[in-house]
Amino acid sequence: MRIRIRHISTYSYASPARSVMQVLRLTPRNHEGQHVINWRIEVDANCLLKRSEDAFGNIVHTFSANGPLMELTVSAEGEVETFDTSGFVRNTVERFPPGLYLRESPLAIADDALCDYAATISGDSPLEKMHNLLDTLHEKLEFDTDPTHLVTNASEAFAAKKAVAQDFAHIFIACARDQNVPARYVSGHILTTESGETRQSAHAWAEAYIRDYGWIGFDPAYGICPQETHVRVACALDYLGAAPVRGAQTGGSGEALDVRISVTDSQNQ
Amino acid sequence: MSKTRFFDEMNGYGDEPRALYARVAEWLLRTPPEVLATRRAQAELMFRRVGITFAVYGGNDDTERLIPFDIIPRIVGHREWSKLEEGLIQRVTALNVFLSDIYGAREILKAGILPPDIIYKNPYFRPEMSGRRVPHDVWVHIAGIDLVRTGEGEFFVLEDNARTPSGVSYMLENREVMMRLMPDLFSSYRIAPVDNYADALLAALRSVTPATARGEPTVALLTPGQYNSAYYEHSFLADRLGIELVEGNDLFVKDEIVYMKTTEGPKRVDVLYRRVDDEWLDPLAFRPDSALGVPGLMNAYQAGNITITNAVGTGVSDDKAIYSYMPEIVRFYTGEEAKLSNVQTWRCREPDAYKYVREHLDELVVKEVNGSGGYGMLVGPHASRADIDEFARKLDYDPANYIAQPTLALSTCPAFIDDAVVPRHVDLRPFILTGSEGSRVVPGGLTRVAMREGSLVVNSSQGGGTKDTWVIEDTNLDSKGA
Question: What is the set of domains in chain A, with CATH numbers?
Fold first, then answer.
């Protein structure tokens, strides 16, 4: 499938910002399930956009723009060809052995409630357990698709029984790690078929490492393994390490952010 | 408990003073308690005047207080010190290579010397630093290594502090107070000076300036601010080093260069002596809610435009489970046997060790692998049945989080408590400085004293005090056994 993605973030300020700095993880890389045909990142301010790679192998762009800025637009767009790999994630850039992903990370800590829940997940093998976790989690929690709702942490979202995609991923990861299965967070995009219209949210899911199989994707928000509708952008221990944008600014009050994301099937337009 | 069980630094195991302490013993004999009490009161006044206080976390009354100071010096002989110095430098050298390795090629894991999860699951391991090199390959610029003594010539390392070890201001202030209060006793010995610490530290910090820096390196000290328990030390050191004391919002990053705001405009910072923990350093890389750090600092660091001391991620080597592997770590990287001994340590992550510890809780000291400041530990012989039972529950819940050590017969040193000279247990934290030209140890360190009779806990947060530490340069005072 050929997927075209446009991810445009426009920041506008009631009083001008003196400076804005951002760390962007908006650029997908190739792996067996996807091939990036073209991609570009633009910032409409006079600044140096520096590209580097983080410790997890994600492509990072960083800039610091000096104001006064009334408005700032950061856009990432390009085309990716995807292939269905039945959830298997192969030929990714790997900088750490799977054991690292058993590490506790701030947004994906299993509290008592999550540990109790994780213990109820049945399955004769870790793979079966992860599939059961995927299924039950999808049924148990309501999927909150409002993109303006903020990411919380695994235990808060679990207690609230309502979760955005990022929360779903954190809950899955916390439970998997609690069961000694290495797990990590993936941020990316999904092409949703509903009326072919765009769904204005970046997506997130999890990957678990299963011995003899390798990394496998699990998308608990939709209760499926990632398919050719999924474009994988960055991975880390949790949202904080893979967040599309992390920023800081000085000055500038009354910030308004408008994010427009369109993910379209570019072959069948 | 019989008093002779412990090695006393003044009297050894008997009543005859060791040669090193003969003059101190004489001084104590001829000085009446009232005079000692006066000296102590004068010392306290001097400390109050300079404002050397520290905050105790969780304290509800007056949170700023003085650390008790004991006026009887602790003395280390020339030969004893030389051996310690060699051992400390060897250990810090190994720690630096170890950190380069675990954030680099991970040879020690490939060689099977350490179980990988001890690194990967360690909360102070920073995956963000993996694959990064630091300027001049120095990670631990300032180390505080806690030593305890159990007998003539018998020293052990109790723990390594490679994050942001504190206490050096006490080493320096204690010396100044002693010189002023007891000039006669002081001048009766040839005592190695400690007041060159500031120069040595500044030289070490300047030596690790990044390759991209131009001209004289600019060094600044980053503090979390006046509410931090060690704020006094931060301002004290900045003053002694003649460098700027800055908080996060005094710095900013532009195009991967760190600048300090000054009245003459932005000034590039080349070396940042930070006393802010890793996770607060940069809200774009670590905790997003940190107001103590500098946005973009990690980008500047990774671009090689600033040296952060100690490097980010050094805390992993403070871990007490990793401590237990230090003999192997030293051997692996230096090809030599460790010159400083470790205390025997049971790793509760290992089933046999756990079983042993569980059955001997009343004899052992049990510590959290990442604990510090004397918090979260059990001193078995001094604990009540209820304390032991409660600790056992915590241990059972997560054995891998604990190590245990025998209750050491820590040496004692005479201390003036209330109105009498009595033995109290002590430890020693020397400070090891490492720059691009290698490591050095300022002769002396911080001697911490457990002020309560029989207590083995010397941490200031647990009521410990300090005393001045004299490294004697006369070799003819060395004891034969040392």
Answer: 2-80+245-265 (2.60.40.2250), 85-242 (3.10.620.30)
